[in-house]
Amino acid sequence: MSTETLPSHVPADKAVRLPYFAREVVRDCPQETLIPEMHRTLGPITYVTNIFPGDKPGWLLTGYDDTMAMLRDAENYTKNGMGQWSQSIGENWLVVPTEVDPPMHAFYRKALNPNFSPQKMSAMKDDLRRRAGDLIDKFKDRKDCDFVNEFSERYPIYIVLDLLGLPQDRMAEFLVWEKDMLHSNDWEVRSNAVKNAVNYLKAEIAERRTSPRDDYMSKIFDFEAEDGRKWNDEEVLGHCFNLFLGGLDTVTSLLGNIFTHLARYPEQQRELRENPDRIVLAVEEFLRLYGPVTAFRIAAREIELHGQKIMPGEYVSVATPVVNQDPKLHESPSEVRFDRKAAHVALGGGIHKCLGMHLARLELQTALEEFLKAIPQFRVKDGFEVGYFVGNITFVPHLELQWD
């Protein structure tokens, strides 16, 4: 976007195209290079011309306090249709509860929260251990693994497919859809993947309407909204799509980032091996530094922030990887410190705090526990060069590990 095409309220010196949102693979760890550089060179609010998929513009907030204030302000910042998922295929359902504003949001969360409570999730611990162990058993004696393909892509997907009652043997197909939806900058590719996932979920929902099963998807039909009304098919679809999308990618991306870090910093890997009781706190620090997602709110009305006008309809970022390195909040923010106990927005904030946060934490903790128990000290495979995909989800697309 040239300065001639900038909206009139955007000063040229506040507009920039950032390499961090280039949606390409870079060689240097962005948490150690690009993000600290953004904090050094950018002000608290910047108009980034390529911040949204498809190289669309929006406002980047770099500060933790500004981001938390926005997350708590559902009146000035809306989430309605934020991801452009249904709109991209000519439909108009919302992702439930992620894209829903109050007051409907409260009805949805009231129905959903008990199903994702810490107690409900901790009851899944044995299943998580079994799923992780089954995957690790396939490569542990080989002394190397293709970590993303053989572990981090499959492990969280097993859990979500189990939860929804969807077939594990379609996993490869689901992975293609998920990558096209979340990692492509081409809106045609993205929309085709959305269409495939939505058509599949619609068929599964219709089948369960006729013949309910003993699974979570069938259970959603009994959830209530306002005045005791049962959820309709669009609401059921919106929620299943949310689980399908979020459950298939976020933990995978985090695991790739975490295990790359542990392969690059052997002394910290050793620390967790020798002190497994530190894994719970370590997961929080990994969430802070490697939380991969830049999400958005949409300005519901004209807003002024740090003297800059934001106009209705404009995107404003919840850039968790950037905000979590706010130097006003953290000392040496690009370093991992297992005793930091630091605030972060990796799991959102305000009314939209991540529905699956207890499950995500448990998945990450269990993966670390089981992997470190079963596999000796590991490192990046000889001759393999790590690459980092930068964009709205920051992740390691491929990771080869080896051990003695």
UniProtKB/TrEMBL annotation:
Q: Name one Pfam family in it.
A: p450
CDD domains in the record, alphabetically? P450cam-like
* Highest taxon above the source species: Bacteria
Q: Which family does it belong to?
A: Belongs to the cytochrome P450 family.
Name of the featured protein? Cytochrome P450
Q: What are the leading ranks of the lineage?
A: Bacteria, Pseudomonadati, Pseudomonadota, Alphaproteobacteria, Sphingomonadales
